[in-house]
Amino acid sequence: MTLHELVSTLKVPLAKVSGVHRLMRYLAHIGFFDIVRIIQENQEQKEAYALTYVSKLLVRDSDHCLAPIMVDLILDPTISSSYQQLGKWVHDEGNQTPFAMALGTGMYVLQ
Fold first, then answer.
1. Alpha-carbon span 3 to 47, nearest angstrom
2. Is the pLDDT of residue 104 over 90?
3. Per CATH, the architecture of 3-60 is what?
4. CATH 1.10.10.10 intervals, the chain
């Protein structure tokens, strides 16, 4: 999918297209997407983004889709707040988990 197709499909405002471009380049750099060259109908070559093995795991209605789990891990503030404690946790001498540092209790105690 080209950048133009991506921002069109996602209905990204024009003012944010350059930000999406930078994000996609970063995600390709870390291996989440591949950058490929495609030849369009008019024989013009364009840069496009392709799924990798990792990003295929987030495609809904596919085998082994992890999207619902990832939404919970990334968007749920109860869980995501513990990510902000990772730096402190690495250097802390205590036995608390990042989750306990963020919320004051263990992950499996909350209901």
1. 8
2. no
3. Orthogonal Bundle (1.10)
4. 3-60
